[in-house]
Amino acid sequence: MSTLSLPAQAYLLACDTGRDRLPDRHRVAPLVRAAALTDLVLRGLVADDDGRPVVTGPGGTGHLVLDDLLSDLAADPHRKWRGWVRRDARATLQSLETQLDAAGTITLRTSRVLGLFPRRRPVVRDRAEAARLHEAVAAALRGAEPASQVDPGVAALTSLAAAAELGTVLPRRDRRQFKARLAELEDRAGAAVPALRKVVRELKAARTAAISAASSGGSGG
User: Fold this and answer.
1) HEC string for 115-141
2) How far is residue 28's CA from residue 58's CA, in Å, rounded to a whole number?
3) Which of 101, 122, 32 is nearest to 68 (CA)?
4) How many helices (H) and strands (E) does the chain have?
5) What does the pLDDT look like over 165-203, one tens digit per residue?
6) CA distance 34 to 6
7) Rounded Cα distance, 60 and 42, in Å
8) Strand partners, 9
9) pLDDT, tens only, 58-94
């Protein structure tokens, strides 16, 4: 499997390599954050304690995003998983992008919309790696191999993509068709995955409410 950290893999998986863009950054930010939490769980550095992630021992990973999060977790052991998925998600996404750009994994193009609002567009330099991640997720979902034998990182990546509802990776029909399989894979991924699912649903509900309010305001004049 890839030598990239799990948040880096999740990021590449979410990228649209055909159009050199990252669709729905508001959804990818908590995805990256949840992937970082899950990565720490898989490395044995974080465990669940009554609905809260706790650091289980000393040590670092060598990945700046992961080590920054590990320090934050150690300093605040009372926050629940959902809170950690939401907290500083945008900053974590930007930090990861900067590191991937510096490492040559992506080329980050920045511009301003209407000359005011900053916009980041990632160009994935190793498209073969991105394609391998897509293939690994597809194999984990549709393969005959028992879920218990799927590589833990691949199982986690597949579960995270499903929880984030990445339609370009796992269309809704696949998430429905392979619901039982996804549940088996998620059992191996840890508590950040259901927390991510809740956050994504909250984001969708807030967006729907905002659109409805804007529509009502526009028609009320």
Assistant:
1) CCEEEEEEEECCHHHHHHHHHHHHHHH
2) 29
3) 32
4) 10, 4
5) 999 999 999 999 999 999 999 999 999 999 999 999 999
6) 9
7) 13
8) none
9) 888 999 999 999 999 999 999 999 999 999 999 999 9
